[in-house]
């Protein structure tokens, strides 16, 4: 079972629907026991960084997320879910993120006639091909909706980048933690490949745990 964390953010239903279409058992929940018992955990979201962190704390989910990550459970952040994994965001000065990964979220500069938010399809480059992108070609197109982007402190964790006026870090991988700024659930077949790859990682991790018991 995959737990999709429910903290009143937008786009959670789209992620649930995509996983169900892949034949995956899914539970949208904020119950700590269910989240910690899941084979994999997804933190999706569209909305404000500050409001989202407030909800995670109000529901007691910040510590649940940290515990899930510490247990080695495969964890995937999507869009706002990526941003929340880092230290802070220019969108909400003074608000601390989960700081599971090092880096900051900054606003996309509205220069050269580029519209902000960045909405639409953009292609990926792979500075380090992560496990989410197995079977995907360099230059694959995925769908974005965002006004802020990641500047990761460690270039070594960046597995995908995209250009939109600036070079943006748009996917990361470190140990059992994965995240995408774009929306795999809205990115057609390429996005489904990414979700399938994540689900495969969840299955492998669960199998290893069963063998160790």
Describe this structure in words.
This protein is of the alpha/beta class and 213 residues long. It has helices at residues 12-21, 32-36, 49-58, 61-70, 80-84, 188-212, and strands spanning 2-5, 26-29, 40-43, 75-78, 88-89, 103-107, 118-123, 141-146, 148-152, 158-163, 167-174, 177-180. The protein has 6 helices and 12 strands. A 7-stranded mixed sheet has the order 2-1-3-4-12-11-10, with helices on both faces. The protein is globular and about 50 Å long. The relative contact order is 0.16.
Offer a few descriptive terms.
globular, 3-stranded mixed beta sheet, alpha/beta, 213 residues
Topology at a glance:
Elements: E1 2-5, H1 12-21, E2 26-29, H2 32-36, E3 40-43, H3 49-58, H4 61-70, E4 75-78, H5 80-84, E5 88-89, E6 103-107, E7 118-123, E8 141-146, E9 148-152, E10 158-163, E11 167-174, E12 177-180, H6 188-212
Parallel strand pairs: 1-2, 1-3, 3-4, 4-12, 5-6
Antiparallel strand pairs: 6-9, 7-8, 10-11, 11-12
SSE-based structural type: alpha/beta
In terms of DSSP E residues, the strand content is 25-35%
| End-to-end gap | 19 Å
Give the strand order, joined by hyphens, for the main sheet.
Answer: 2-1-3-4-12-11-10
User: Total helix count?
Assistant: 6
Helical content stands at: 25-40%
Mean pLDDT: 95
Largest sheet: 7 strands, mixed
**Total DSSP E strands:** 12
Order of helices and strands: EHEHEHHEHEEEEEEEEH
């Amino acid at each position: 079972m995959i737990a999709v964390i429910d903290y009143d953010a937008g786009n959670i239903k789209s992620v649930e629907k995509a996983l169900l279409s892949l034949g995956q058992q899914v539970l949208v929940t904020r119950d700590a026991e269910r989240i910690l018992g899941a084979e994999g955990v997804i933190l999706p979201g569209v909305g404000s960084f500050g409001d989202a962190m407030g909800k995670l704390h109000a529901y007691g989910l910040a510590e649940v997320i940290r515990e899930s990550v510490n247990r080695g459970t495969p964890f995937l952040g999507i869009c706002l879910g990526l941003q929340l994994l880092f230290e802070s965001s220019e969108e909400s000065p003074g608000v601390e993120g989960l700081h599971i990964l090092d880096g900051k979220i900054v606003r996309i500069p509205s220069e050269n006639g580029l519209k902000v938010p960045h909405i639409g399809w953009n292609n990926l480059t792979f500075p380090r091909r992560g496990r989410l992108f197995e079977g995907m070609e360099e230059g694959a197109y995925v769908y974005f909706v965002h006004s802020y982007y990641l500047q990761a402190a460690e270039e070594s964790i960046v597995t995908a980048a995209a250009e939109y006026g600036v070079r943006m870090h748009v996917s990361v991988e470190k140990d059992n933690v994965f995240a995408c700024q774009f929306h795999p659930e809205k990115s057609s077949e390429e996005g489904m490949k990414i979700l399938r790859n994540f689900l495969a990682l969840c299955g492998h991790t669960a199998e290893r745990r069963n063998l160790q018991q």
